Amino acid sequence: MTKADTATEAADHPQDVARRALAEHRSRQLLDAAARLMEREGSEAVSMQALAGEAGVSVGLIYRYFGGKDEVLLAVITQVLDAFATDVPMAIAAAGDDPVRRLAAAFAAYCQVINEHRHAAVLTYRESKSLDEEGRRRIKQLEIETSQPLRDTIRRGVEQGKLTAADPDLVAYNLLLLAHSWALKHWYFERTMTLTDYIRSQLALALRAIVTREHEEAYADLLKPPGEMR
Q1: d(Cα 143, Cα 229) in Å, to the nearest integer?
Q2: How far is the C-alpha of 103 from the C-alpha of 124, rounded, in Å?
């Protein structure tokens, strides 16, 4: 057995797997609590003691995972981008080869991540200015990286003549803003539609503007909002 095999076996030991799972659960618990609390009170007003109370843990436990409030805020924001980096490429790959279907799957994945991390998504807009220069630089870089699959998919659709977009980057960011709006204006949208209806309605609105006329029939199911499909 090689050293690599030994290391792999040790890493996969049930106790190690359980410890990692517990650490991930604790971290997520703390970040979810921090997102709720910071959205409600503002990051400047939040103390580690208040965070401990919100999460139902001791202050000492928080310091096992984070060095201070600034690290917590950065982690709250980056967890959204980390989820984008994981979920969006998976959704695109599962959608097959058609660029329009891949674009629809990508947008749905962005919206689903935003829905799962609504409080953190709002904090991205409200509190990112509280981060230091390095933290803000990291957020900007992650945003560019996690939106790249969307831009690539749009460009492929243009190359195949299925989409028309003079500026794929602008189209990509318009779609990202629509996804974020589910969190930013959730208080309004939740009164009249589900997340699924929101995704289908916004997607139909966006695709009607960029799907080429000769391919509209092939994507009729995506171009019709929920109300027209009933």
Answers
A1: 34
A2: 24
pLDDT band with cut points at 50, 70 and 90 for residue 17: low
CATH number at residue 141: 1.10.357.10
Q: Tell me how far apart the alpha carbons of residues 66 and 30 are, in angstroms, rounded to a whole number.
A: 10
**Contact (CB, 8 A) for 55 and 62:** yes
**Taking residues 199-203, what's their average pLDDT?**
96
How does residue 66 score in pLDDT terms, banded at 50, 70 and 90? confident
Give the whole-angstrom CA distance, residue 84 versus residue 90. Answer: 10
Q: Which of 139-143, 153-157, 198-202 has the lowest mean pLDDT?
A: 139-143
Mark which of 67, 96, 118 sits at the end of a domain: 67
- Radius of gyration (Cα) for the chain, nearest Å? 21
Instruction: Residue 61: give the domain boundaries.
Output: 1-67
Handedness of CA 153, 157, 160, 166 (dihedral sign): negative
pTM reported for the whole predicted model: 0.80
Show Cβ contacts of residue 80 under 8 Å, excluding neighbours closer than 6 positions.
113, 114, 117, 120, 121, 124
**163 shares a domain with 78:** yes
Residues 136 and 201 in one domain: yes
Q: Are 52 and 62 in contact (CB under 8 A)?
A: yes
Structure tokens at 134: 């390095």
Which tokens is 21 given? 């799972």
Last residue of some domain: 67, 102, 118? 67
Give how many domains the chain has, as a whole number.
Answer: 2
